[in-house]
Design brief:
77 residues; alpha+beta; 2 domains; 3-stranded antiparallel β-sheet; elongated
């Protein structure tokens, strides 16, 4: 993990097209701004984890349905 120290209005560049700027610092809360291309998805980590969990559940459900359908097709005279 890279650890950097930044002050208000200072930025971090990631590649050529992503910039993270410190907008304000108040106690233990820091507001950041992220400038990135529209095709780059940006989520808070807890939201990202929930999306991944839901995607995994959905793919598992689809696989289970396909298995059941396959069994039904094989058992159809």
């Amino acid at each position: 993990m890279l650890v950097l120290t930044r002050k208000k209005n200072e930025s971090i560049k990631i590649g050529d097209d992503i910039e993270i700027t410190i907008l304000s610092v108040s106690g233990e809360q820091i507001k950041i701004g992220i400038d990135a291309p529209k095709h780059v998805e940006i989520h808070r980590k807890e939201v990202y984890v929930e999306i991944q969990d839901e995607n995994n559940k959905a793919s598992q459900t689809s696989l289970d349905l396909l298995k059941k359908l396959n069994i039904q097709i094989k058992n159809t005279p």
